[in-house]
Structures are given as structure tokens and as C-alpha cells.
Amino acid sequence: MVDHNSNAADTSPVFSPLYQQIKALLLQSLEQGEWNAGEIIPSEVELASRYKVSQGTVRKAVDELAADNLLVRRQGRGTFVATHQEAKVRFRFLSMKADSGADVKTKSKIVNVEHLQPSEDVRTHLGLAKKELAVKITRLLSFNNKPAVYEEIWLSTHIFTDVTQEKMMNYKGTLYGWFEAEYNVRMIRAVEKLRAVMGDSQVVDSLEISQNEPLLFIERLSYSYADKLVEVRHGWYLTSAYHYQNELI
């Protein structure tokens, strides 16, 4: 005997909670640039009226976006679009910690900016045609005034149209802060792959280490709104006095 209702659960429509629907609408407004980084968004009362839902529903949606580091609540002032200028999120993507537990003073030096044909992997990640050029930024990070990280950062020229070393050196904030201020591109999540390597001569010389010094290699794929991949970053990390720390929740 065939049970004609056996697949009913598979074909039933799936409904998300109302606050999740509001969260999706707010995220859509962020993706479309209705509110830019650092700008205040409408109050919960205004958003509740706009979407014809309760203020509590809006609050729950905003709470989740704040937990995702996309919005920032400021007591007595309102809710703002999160920015990489905020102290809270400025170093959210830097996961290196000193073995001693002490705070690390970081310094960034732009070594070079070039427009080159990337490798096939980088080109595929960035969605570039076969002979298209990409922006390659070479950067050296120092921790407590000692070289610690050598990076090659690849960007699409479709988005980052006029990157030069001079422009980058004139900006005093963080790299992601510059992307945000200059190109209205905000990094909101990243995927990293890690492995142990030995550095080539360029990496070794830049980090001022011996040829046989072990390094941690990290490939980072960084995404903006609408899950758009906008950066491929290769980093060689010196871990003799530092370690990579990641919190799993």
C-alpha cells in the first residue's frame, strides 16, 4: 500500500520567521548602498512603520545584524552601519596574537602596487577574463616594529579602478578602511586556508629571516555584501613569537 502523503513534508513551503525576513530586507538595503558605512540607519520605530511589523521584530533583526558586525548600536545616538574605522572591528580580520599575551603594536608598509595578469586561481576567484589585469598590492606588516607578515593582495580592477602606491600611502587608516572610504567596498566575511611552508627569497628577505625558518601561509578570500568575492590575499606569517588564534562558536 502506497502512502501518498509520505513526501508531503518535502514539498511543503518553508517559511522563515518574520524577523529573519526583516533582517533580509535590511541586508538588501545595505547591499544596495541605501545606507553607507558609518551612516545612521532609521530608528526602530521608523523601520517598523516602513515594513509594517512590530518594533520588537525590527529590534530582533537589528540585534542579529549587530552580532554579525554589520551594524553598531551607540547608546543614546542610534544604530549605525558598521565601518572598519570602528575600534571594535578594525582588527577583526587579524588573528595573530603574541605568545606572551601582550598587546601587539602593528605597522603597515606598502611595498609595491602593480597591475599584472594574475595566476589562474586568482583570476578565477576574482571572476576576471583570461588576459585581464588585476591589482597586486605587496605589503609588509610589522609587529612591535619587527617584520612579521609578508602579503600579496589581489583585487579586481573592475572595482578598484585606480589604485596607486601613492594614494595608498597617503591614507593613514587600515587597508579595509581605505577600501571602504575610497571604493565603498566593505569586507564582511572571509574564508581562510592555512598550511606550513618555507618562504621564497623575496619573503625571506622581507621578513629578515633565515631560509629554513618555518612560516604559516594563509590564503584569504574576502567577501563584501551579497557574498561578492572582492579580494584574494596570500600572507606569509612569522610565528616564532606569535600564533594564529581563532575562536570557534
From TrEMBL:
Transmembrane residue ranges: none
InterPro entries assigned to the protein according to its UniProt record, in alphabetical order: Bact_HTH_transcr_reg, Chorismate_lyase_/UTRA_dom_sf, Tscrpt_reg_HTH_GntR, UTRA, WH-like_DNA-bd_sf, WH_DNA-bd_sf
Gene Ontology molecular-function annotations: DNA binding; DNA-binding transcription factor activity
SUPFAM superfamilies reported for this sequence: Chorismate lyase-like, Winged helix' DNA-binding domain
Keywords associated with the record: DNA-binding, Transcription, Transcription regulation
Coiled-coil spans in chain: none
Domain of life the protein comes from: Bacteria
PROSITE patterns in the cross-refs: HTH_GNTR
A GO biological-process term: negative regulation of DNA-templated transcription
Residue intervals of the HTH gntR-type domain: 16-84
Pfam families hit by this protein: GntR, UTRA
Protein name: HTH-type transcriptional repressor YvoA
Native organism taxonomy: Bacteria, Pseudomonadati, Pseudomonadota, Betaproteobacteria, Burkholderiales
Name of encoding gene: yvoA_1
